[in-house]
Specification:
It is built from twelve helices and nine strands. By secondary structure, the chain is of the alpha/beta class.
């Protein structure tokens, strides 16, 4: 059983939803982002999404765009991100790790080689934002061969008739993009989320993680109770950015982000 499936089944038995925090690899430097990654499980992360810095992050708002640029300036590469996951796995063999990114770096790396190396490093799932289902054969066979879940994105304006096509080969969980737009902008209301979930449940038995626009502990708790997980990204990155001094990490950077994550985790677990 994959780590992702095992984690969702464990949380279902506990009767609660998951919290999935996001961090941008190498933001603002490798040492700081690795310290955050290692500290997230103890702060309440159930699964962790790692952003792979890319020069044209078209789905991301200004906060994550800035984080990606900081990561690239710090020397981030796809191979470096996999090494970061490998270092995390030295002390954590249970927490699922999902890489979120764009297809160009994977295509340049070599899709078959990437899937082998990602699985060996300890990656569990992939969210490739700009890889449509129609082009998914670039990765799907190699991902499946190496036990990597390809996590499908579904938006509010995805037609009902397209859902079975999108989800018939999806695995891990469904990532519900709760707004039409880029990350970190507006937040979907409770009524919007409650109305969206039944059609996803009708199309697939996979868990549903809700992301894009979840900024507060209250919003995360609501999303994790309506769906099966809440993804929190821009809010954590904004906190990190607020602690930087001349673009570099300060002594407050790691504690500030992990304290915020712990507050959100308490809200999610209390729902």
């Amino acid at each position: 059983m994959s780590r992702i499936k095992a984690r969702f089944e464990s949380l279902k038995a506990e009767g609660r939803g998951a919290l999935i925090p996001y961090l941008q690899a190498y933001d603002p430097d490798l040492e700081t982002s690795l310290a955050l990654l290692k500290g997230m499980p103890a702060a309440g992360a159930d699964l962790i999404e790692i952003g792979v810095p890319f020069s044209d992050p078209s789905a991301d708002g200004p906060t994550i765009q800035a984080a990606a640029l900081r990561g690239l300036k710090a020397g981030a590469t796809l191979a470096g991100v996999l090494a970061m996951v490998r270092a995390f796995r030295q002390n954590d063999s249970d927490t699922p790790i999902i890489l979120m990114g764009y297809v160009n770096p994977i295509d340049s790396y070599g899709p078959a080689r990437f899937c082998v190396d990602a699985a060996e490093a300890g990656v569990d799932g992939l969210i490739i934002v700009d890889l449509p289902k129609e082009e998914s054969d670039l990765l799907s066979a190699d991902a499946q061969k190496n036990g990597l879940d390809i996590i499908q994105l579904v938006a509010p304006n995805t037609p009902d008739e397209r859902l079975p096509y999108l989800l018939n080969t999806a695995s891990g969980f469904i990532y519900y993009v709760s707004i039409t737009g880029i990350t970190g902008t507006r937040t979907a209301s409770h009524d919007e989320l409650a109305a969206a979930l039944p059609r996803l449940r009708a199309a697939s038995s996979l868990p549903v993680a809700i992301g894009f626009g979840i900024r507060t502990a209250e919003q995360a708790a609501r999303a994790a109770s309506v769906g099966d997980a809440a993804v929190v990204a821009s809010a954590l990155i904004a906190t990190l950015a607020s602690t930087l001094e001349n673009g570099k990490a300060s002594s407050a950077t790691v504690p500030a982000v992990l304290d915020q994550l712990a507050d959100i985790a308490r809200a999610v677990r209390g729902t």
